[in-house]
Design a protein that fits this description.
3 copies of one chain form a homotrimer. Chain A is mainly α and 220 residues long. Chain A has helices at 9-33, 38-60, 70-94, 97-104, 114-121, 126-144, 160-175, 181-201, 211-216.
């Protein structure tokens, strides 16, 4: 466990819980928008917060932390109660650029600890696994209520580039054995900044060339 | 294995297969409603019956029982044939209050045996895992055909409260070392009764406060 | 490892990568049709190509090959670039009968190697697991963008029968210890031929009897 944590356990745990809480709010708010009842709010809050981490743990063969850590499990329930009573206020705060940027940033927070990403990098596809972890909860959340996942929507500001930037810096740090709490935080800040700029200036990723032909050729 | 079964193996197996059959019918009927062919009926029957159990087994790291037990696998195929030829009759029976209550009840039946729930309770989030097991198949079934999962629908009678009631009683029984075939059946009967009442009197769970603001604020 | 490969490792790897590339194209094209950006194309290409194999590996408890093999991971990215610049041409080629038949054929190609199917057959439900592997990527791909999975659509030509034919022949070969590179190729060719005939003559699977009653009885 010594080298599996970038931060002191207490700090790491607090960062994790804050991240889980923020992700939970996004799930709970989507449930309110979809007119679901309080159990639906709780389900989407849990799924948004923990879905990506559970999937990551299944892939690396570890027992899912989400089912073993009481804090991981109860934090989304707290978010559920908050959303249930105060969702208009939460919605307003949730749309603040700072929080949206935080949700997209590249390093440690929420159930996506940097370590699995780091160790996975040795296997070559670690960046992809990191993305799965981070984006997984949001994708499951959206799929459950039949929405096109935000991750895939063209009309949302750039999401993948900041995450990939953070992931790439982390990858370089790992391979040069320089990954620690400070450099890890730095990678996170770079990703955060790129995401802030993307939100502020509404950067978009390019779509396929010659789309006019595609739009006519539907497979139905 | 001795303490992993509340009932004698034969009884447990029979209860499991009955539960799987009932869940399979719900999947098959949804497939018919969606106008799918016989293979679609079989896929939804299998998924509805076994999806939750497979997910539970993945989480606890056990080889999925659904892929190892011939009975688990072939029972949904029997349900497929029944639905294929007799779906109007099955639809009528399936909507009977008794069966709908049985599908929602809180303890043992279908691939969701009480033991994993029980042992998971030591980990704190066992009730959630029990819910995942029980509701998982239905959720995957609904997501596959682009329906909002019944579990999340506000306009369906109360589903979570009976299941949580059963789960809570089971949790108390486990922690006081009183869980056995009789008390387990009792917990199931309580959950079943609550579910019957919810269906009969059309109980609903509350939705978020101040929804009027939410309905106008669509994220589109 | 000696008996886990029907073909020489190099040949197997090449066949795998070709299969992954073909499946990736189907994911990328769907992304273009859905107007997603280049990251959406990449995500659907990866999911379509590797989703089924990841799910299979989770079920059999093996570390997912898709996350460990660089070739498996980068091939869909190559397909992404190809689709991004040339999708009208790719769309045309992709709809050719030969390729569509190849995607549906019953044996080895893509991340679905025959061995897990073969070893799973001992457990009785191996054909189902083989189907999951092969169809899984396509199902996840379609669910992500809120489409009814092709696998379940009645208005698509017969898909399951060729796959089941190939699976059944393989099962017989395994149980009689005659499965090798030649007989495995033969099983694949039979499945391929049946699929070609199904596409050419537009064979469909039957839907449930008495559907008129079902279409009126919607559950809404």
């Amino acid at each position: 466990m010594t080298d599996s944590q970038l931060f002191a356990p207490d700090v790491q745990q607090t960062l994790d819980l804050i991240g889980i809480f923020v992700f939970s709010l996004s799930g709970g708010l989507l449930a309110v928008r979809k007119n679901l009842d309080i159990f639906g709010i709780a389900v989407l809050a849990e799924v948004a917060a923990l879905g990506g981490g559970v999937f990551r743990d299944l892939i690396i063969g570890a027992p899912p932390a989400a089912f073993q850590n009481r804090g991981y499990f109860f934090t989304p329930l707290v978010a559920t109660v908050v959303v249930f009573f105060l969702h208009p206020e939460v919605e307003r705060i949730n749309n603040a650029v700072l929080l949206r940027a935080a949700r997209g940033r590249g390093v440690s927070c929420g159930p996506a600890r940097p370590t699995p990403t780091a160790s996975a990098l040795a296997g070559g596809a670690g960046v992809a696994r990191g993305l799965v972890t981070r984006a997984g909860g949001g994708v499951v959340r959206d799929v459950l209520v039949n929405e096109l996942p935000s991750l895939l929507r063209w009309d949302r500001a750039l999401y993948a580039v900041p995450a990939l930037t953070g992931g790439a810096i982390t990858a370089v740090l790992v391979s040069t054995h320089h990954l620690n709490a400070y450099t890890g935080t730095f990678a996170g800040l770079v990703a955060f900044t790129v995401r802030m700029l993307a939100l502020r200036y509404d950067w978009r990723a390019p779509r396929a060339w010659h789309r006019e032909s595609a739009s006519s050729g539907s497979e139905s």
